[in-house]
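Need a sequence for this fold. Nothing fancy.
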């Protein structure tokens, strides 16, 4: 997977990707990251990327041409004429989910466009964006953290990025329930004991207990997910 990120803050994206599991995957060549500073594509010497909004209102907008020139350069690198998804990170998008992460992880290249200030001129968005995605119902100062969140969630689904032990951990959410509680040594901590069943060595009972815990936790913390799961599993 090759990630291409169009942003005003490339250093934030690079720092965010250069640690832990993602760093290891880039080092091994399973992932690659290319950042493009939109400011580098501004033709005039002042390097100003934004301007006032027609119709009035607070805030500044990134002008269409700077984003478009950045995009053309990304496409030159990827191969002009190829159909590559362009994700615009915006609170006006549909919500990014595990299902979306799975869908995006099948692509060979992904282009991210990070918004800033009050946004970007709509005309260039119409021309280049294929997916408008939000990471949740709150407003960030820019799209960089949202892009990092999506790249992280997509990356861990790509074969070889996680080792096998870690991969096993992916199951729970994709089944529509939250993960059950887990424990490691010692058997007792602050007077709290590890649930007896987990020490029993009885595999079927452990599985049963975990499923019950997952269901209960989902019902309590995420009633929305619980209702969906129940509708799908009622028989
Ligand atoms: N940019 C600002 N807020 C955002 C959000 N919630 N999701 C994606 N991009 C954003």
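Here you go.
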């Amino acid at each position: 997977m090759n990630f291409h990120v169009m942003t005003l803050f490339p250093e934030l994206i690079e720092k965010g990707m250069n640690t832990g599991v993602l760093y290891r995957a880039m080092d091994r060549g399973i992932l690659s990251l290319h950042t493009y500073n939109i400011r580098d594509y501004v033709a005039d010497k002042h390097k100003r990327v934004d301007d006032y909004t027609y119709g009035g209102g607070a805030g500044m907008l990134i002008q269409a041409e700077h984003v478009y020139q950045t995009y053309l350069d990304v496409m030159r690198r990827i191969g002009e004429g190829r159909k590559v998804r362009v994700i615009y990170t915006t609170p006006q998008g549909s919500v990014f989910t595990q299902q979306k992460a799975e869908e995006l992880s099948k692509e060979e290249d992904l282009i991210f466009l990070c918004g800033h200030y009050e946004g970007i001129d709509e005309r260039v968005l119409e021309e280049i964006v294929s997916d408008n995605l939000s990471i949740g119902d709150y407003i960030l100062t820019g799209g960089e953290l949202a892009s990092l969140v999506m790249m992280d969630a997509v990356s861990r689904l790509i074969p070889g990025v996680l080792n096998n032990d870690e991969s096993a951990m992916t199951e729970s959410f994709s089944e529509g329930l939250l993960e059950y509680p887990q424990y490691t040594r010692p058997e007792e901590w602050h007077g709290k004991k590890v649930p007896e069943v987990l020490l029993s060595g009885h595999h079927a009972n452990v599985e049963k207990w975990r499923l019950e815990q997952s269901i209960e936790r989902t019902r309590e913390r995420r009633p929305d997910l619980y209702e969906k799961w129940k509708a799908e599993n009622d028989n």
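For context: The first strand starts at residue 2 and ends at 7.
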